[in-house]
Each structure stands twice: as C-alpha cells, then as structure tokens.
Design brief:
By secondary structure, the protein is of the alpha+beta class. It has one domain (19-76). The protein has 2 helices and 2 strands. The chain has a two-stranded antiparallel sheet. β1 and β2 form a beta hairpin. The longest helix has 16 residues, at 61-76.
Length: 78
C-alpha cells in the first residue's frame, strides 16, 4: 500500500548493540562472577523487541547462592 502511494518506509534508529559488544559483555560479566568452584556462563541476546540476559552458575548450593547474591547486589546498588 505504501509503495502504491510512493511513501518511503520509516527509518528505525540504530540503537541495538552489535554482536561484538554483546560478546564482550558476556565475557566481562562471566569473568567478573567467576569464583573458585563455580562455572559461570553468560548469554546475552537482543532482538528488535526484547533484550535478554541469562546467567548460569554451576556449583554447589553455597557457592551458587553467593554468586546470585553478588548479581543482585550489583543490580540493586547500581
């Protein structure tokens, strides 16, 4: 319909992060949360509508609870 009336498509501002930035953020966060006895994996994805961050901690309950508390404190105190 727009083509019939010679209306140009709207230009969306480019505010999404690039893949290289997301990869760097994943590495930085994973290194920062890494502790003895815990394996931390971070996955960040972004679409036009949604941004998502997943943090997985593989460790015993005590260690993983400490990592979760550090994440919570960092978010609350930022």
């Amino acid at each position: 319909m727009r083509a019939r009336e010679n209306i140009q498509p709207r230009q969306q501002p480019q505010i999404r992060l690039q893949n290289e930035d997301l990869d760097r953020y994943q590495e930085e966060i994973a290194q920062r949360l890494q502790t003895d006895g815990a394996t931390v994996k971070v996955k960040i994805s972004q679409s036009r509508i949604e941004g998502k961050m997943q943090i997985a901690v593989r460790a015993n309950a005590e260690t993983s609870s400490a990592v979760i508390k550090r994440v919570r404190d960092a978010v609350i105190n930022s």
